[in-house]
Automatic annotation (TrEMBL):
Record-linked InterPro entries: HAMP_dom, HATPase_C_sf, HATPase_dom, His_kinase_dom, HisK_dim/P_dom, HisK_dim/P_sf, Sig_transdc_His_kin-like_C, TCS_sensor_his_kinase
Start and end residues of each Histidine kinase domain: 245-448
Name of this chain's protein: histidine kinase
Primary location group: membrane
Catalytic reactions of this protein: ATP + protein L-histidine = ADP + protein N-phospho-L-histidine
Domain HAMP: 186-237
GO-annotated cellular components: plasma membrane
Gene Ontology molecular function, alphabetical: phosphorelay sensor kinase activity
Organism of provenance: Novosphingobium arvoryzae
Superkingdom of origin: Bacteria
Pfam families: HATPase_c
EC number per UniProt: 2.7.13.3
């Protein structure tokens, strides 16, 4: 799975789920530890109360006045030295009796100062201890103090080991929840991934519309986009046809005007006016030819969704060029581009190559080379080089203008490069002319 990009839906969901899991697991941890501690404390206190009662029951006074137990307490931990479980019985004027575990220190007998069982947290022989005690009156009217204590750390140890286990378990659960959360995000966003792939194919020219079925939330979006794409390409096609029709319809009236202007130019009294008319009619004719060529180039073709195969697109053009420019040799260098699909309209692209190859053929002295190069970053370049005179540097920018021809001796209309520049702009390609040591090089570059 790809790491989510900044600003992506995936990252939003991931953050939300992480927060949700951390809060949920944290709340469970906090409350579980609290509840467990309360439970353990309660059962500890109950146990101690039972033990101090047992101590009271088992204590007796021997005939010689000593305090004795009729039998040991049922819990063996009271006999293990410094085990954390202690008891003690004291009375004024008698030797105190202590549990076998209390090999040093003693418990504070003042905790036991009433016949009722009382408890407190006190210092025991081995640290803070939960202490229970009560008193009973002896045969001489003296107080006998029964005290029993358990180290606080025993309780802490139990709670800590529970907390450790719980933490491990909850971390595992949290990881599992996050993993399922990721899977859910992937599953939920899958249609969007499909949509973005479909848009990619559309841009690459591998599809003419968004393909596939989408969930109801985004289906209208896909449908709207498809409708928009169709409408757009219909509109472009219609506009081209209309421009073509308009240019066509102007041709005949223009021919009549030219005819009339020629007649005026022949008459001495109107020669100047006739010449002006002739020049203007010439300019109009150029515009018409240009618009007709543009309309021909991809009229009726969908604006997107087509790819150009390399080098196949060039083969018929090169054959035509060899017939058109006999005596010039046209060479093709495919580089690493064999079978490459260029995501542009093939009709327009072929037209663009034709214009540049035709120019190169006209001005080359012997050879024209069409070379394709495909870079690793997806850039695809076509270069058309000839061994002709090239173009004087100051004219390089001007030759793209409508009707500009530098060499009137060579037949032409001056429209070729203007159309080429237009085509390149429509196709999103970069068109550059540069002079080489010998001849001109035209470069058509596609960058993804
Ligand atoms: N390969 C080339 N070598 C030298 N000059 C060129 C070349 N291509 C174009 N030109 C110059 O640019 C001018 C404009 O070219 P273009 O627009 O195709 O019109 P046309 O080919 O009809 O003359 C040409 O008249 C020519 O002077
Ligand atoms: Mg030309």
């Amino acid at each position: 799975m790809r790491p989510p990009l900044p600003g992506s839906l995936r990252l939003r969901f991931l953050l939300a789920i992480t927060l949700w899991v951390v809060l949920g697991v944290g709340a469970i941890w906090f409350s579980a530890v609290g509840i467990f501690r309360t439970h353990v404390e309660r059962s500890y206190h109950e146990e101690l109360e039972v033990h101090v009662r047992e101590l009271g029951r088992l204590t007796a006074l021997a005939p010689d006045g000593r305090i004795v137990l009729t039998r040991p307490l049922s819990d063996p931990r009271y006999e293990e030295p410094l085990s954390g479980f202690y008891w003690q019985v004291t009375a004024d004027g008698r030797a105190p009796l202590k549990s076998g575990s209390m090999t040093r220190g003693s418990l504070d007998e003042h905790i036991a100062h009433s016949p009722e069982i009382l408890h407190t947290l006190d210092n025991g022989p081995t640290g803070p201890a939960i202490t229970y005690g009560f008193t009973r009156t002896g045969p001489r009217g003296e107080d006998i103090h029964f005290v029993i204590a358990t180290d606080q750390r025993e309780l802490d140890r139990l709670v800590n080991s529970f907390t450790r286990d719980l933490t491990l378990w909850l971390v595992g659960l949290g990881a599992l929840l996050l993993a399922t959360g990721l899977a859910i995000i992937g599953f939920g966003l899958h249609p969007l991934d499909r949509l973005s792939r479909a848009i990619g194919r559309l841009r690459q020219g591998e599809a003419v519309e968004l393909e596939g079925r989408y969930p109801v939330e985004i289906a209208p979006l896909a449908a709207d986009l498809n409708a928009y794409i169709r409408q757009n390409s219909d509109m472009i096609a219609r506009a081209r046809v209309q421009a073509g029709n308009l240019a066509h319809s102007l041709r005949t009236p223009l021919a009549i005007i030219t005819d009339e202007a020629e007649r005026l130019a022949e008459r001495p009294d109107s020669a100047a006016a006739g010449q002006v008319l002739l020049d203007q009619a010439g300019a109009m004719e150029q515009q018409i030819e240009y618009q007709l060529a543009r309309a021909r180039s991809s009229a009726g073709q969908p604006a997107s969704g087509r790819t150009t195969r390399l080098p196949d697109v060039a083969l018929p053009i090169l054959k035509a060029m060899e017939r058109l420019h006999p005596g010039k040799h046209f060479r093709l260098a495919v580089g690493g581009c064999s079978g490459t699909a260029l995501p542009v309209d093939p009709v327009d692209y072929a037209e663009l190559l034709s214009i540049l190859l035709d120019n190169a053929g006209k001005w080359a002295s012997a050879e024209v080379v069409l070379a394709f190069t495909c870079a690793a970053d997806g850039a695809i370049t076509a270069t058309i080089s000839d061994d002709g005179p090239g173009i004087p540097a100051p004219e390089l920018a001007r030759v793209f203008d409508l009707g500009v021809r530098l060499d009137p001796a060579v037949p032409g209309s001056g429209l070729g490069l203007a159309i080429a520049r237009d085509l390149a702009a429509t196709l999103g390609l970069r068109l550059d002319l540069t002079n080489r040591a010998q001849g001109l090089m035209a470069e058509v570059r596609f960058t993804p």
